[in-house]
């Protein structure tokens, strides 16, 4: 599936011997990791949020419907109708206040509207040697800002701020050409490496793009010569309380899936056969399970709320709504068995875990040929290797009940799975043979120590050190008792959720302070937290994340590393 939080750090994903293994959590929670090819327009979105700090508004006009300003063919769409309102919850968050010590002035952003539209992707290939080349994919995007300012103010902003932004992004001082075009002031920057950027100002509206044709298409919409994205009826009017929103179209899913396939294929292996298999399977899988995505951001009592609605084909949605059912209300303290020092934990609430897993495999393998099906089976099996499980189907058929995963390491290297098992015999046969042969002793596998312990019907398997902290090995000293993770969680969640994930991370807060204030990050640790819930509905999957900084905060934080 197209996967979570655009760039959410997944501390529960272990990495072994150059292969990327993903935990059970990712199977259900993999909904919105957008391909890295989209990273540049998202970074641009964040950069423009900050660039307009310097724009002093000198007039006020009626807010625009930003959907009327971009073409109907838009693949990916992001929008906020008030930059100040979208950023305020980020700078008001407790972790930000602890590190920043003062509040940035957002008054210059009040009422400024901004939309970013990705209109396509351009593949390029650069030869390194006669035998080697590297490929890249450039998204063609346009950012549209209704500044509600006099045009002279906006033009000055373009020359001073946007020019500097282009120079920083392209790594050299660009050549600027100015002209009158489309009834406004037109700017074209050319960097030393020939990359270009363009801007146009008309009546206080800024169009900024890395592709001249993208601005032309917006002007065609402005003149009534082409339909806007409003005409597609895919993006509904903004609901009260929405601070920002986004949309990925069906065509966008198709093109993004191809980009993801190429990227992962290049990382999967140096062998052309394997690369071809991955590049062919993954796009087909994504296009077959997701039709479009809607995202909204709002501010709640517990923090910033990001909600993702992932629409699926009707037949896929029917299968998942039947098999991904909850077993009733999830525990009010779902992480009572997890140590409080865990970095991330997920509680699952499947009515039938085996049926849920089999449906994932069934949907993934549908319309696949025999070879592709075997690749999917092998990949699915690798998801459970960090837990010492050799046969996932046999594992789930053992009567897995209310499974839970957690990780004691921020880098994802200490995964643990705990679950109640009905059939102990099947459970034992599903494990790596070495674990069965060395009961109560850790087994070195994939450069880590894996241990399986159980008390009555409850099994705990995974990173040996973490398992020992939870379950005492016979004859060994009792583990040190520490409070449960539930005791330190203040978030309230929907008890009917199919899964609930709680996590903490320490990188975003100092990065945001650096972006807003050019502050030194220092060595201090500032922890931010998030809670994510996942459910399946008649249209597909719905995901709700409550966090200190939200998706926009994550996007802006990336600027500190670029």
Structural class: alpha+beta
Shape: globular
Give the amount of beta strand, in percent. Answer: 25-35%
- Mean pLDDT metric: 79
Radius of gyration based on Cα positions: 25 Å
Query: Could you list the spans in which at least 5 consecutive residues all have pLDDT below 50?
Result: 1-38, 53-58
Describe the main β-sheet briefly: 19 strands, antiparallel
Number of helices: 17
Percent range of helical residues: 25-40%
3D architecture notes:
The radius of gyration is 25 Å and the shape is globular. 44% of the residues are buried. The longest helix is centred in the N-terminal third of the chain and has 20 residues, at 151-170. Strand 17 (448-455) and strand 18 (458-463) form a beta hairpin. The protein contains 17 helices and 21 strands. Helix 16 packs across helix 17. It has a 19-stranded antiparallel sheet, sandwiched between helices. The chain has a two-stranded antiparallel sheet with strand order 1-2. With 562 residues, the protein is an alpha+beta fold.
Question: What can be said about this structure in brief?
Answer:
This protein has helices at residues 24-29, 39-51, 83-92, 94-100, 151-170, 212-222, 250-268, 272-289, 314-323, 353-365, 370-382, 392-397, 424-430, 433-437, 464-470, 508-517, 550-557; strands spanning 15-16, 19-20, 76-80, 113-127, 133-146, 175-181, 184-190, 196-202, 205-209, 242-248, 292-300, 303-311, 344-348, 401-407, 415-420, 443-445, 448-455, 458-463, 499-505, 528-537, 540-547.
Write the layout of secondary structure elements.
Elements: E1 15-16, E2 19-20, H1 24-29, H2 39-51, E3 76-80, H3 83-92, H4 94-100, E4 113-127, E5 133-146, H5 151-170, E6 175-181, E7 184-190, E8 196-202, E9 205-209, H6 212-222, E10 242-248, H7 250-268, H8 272-289, E11 292-300, E12 303-311, H9 314-323, E13 344-348, H10 353-365, H11 370-382, H12 392-397, E14 401-407, E15 415-420, H13 424-430, H14 433-437, E16 443-445, E17 448-455, E18 458-463, H15 464-470, E19 499-505, H16 508-517, E20 528-537, E21 540-547, H17 550-557
Antiparallel strand pairs: 1-2, 3-4, 3-10, 4-5, 5-9, 6-7, 7-8, 8-9, 10-11, 11-12, 12-21, 13-14, 13-19, 14-15, 15-18, 16-17, 17-18, 19-20, 20-21
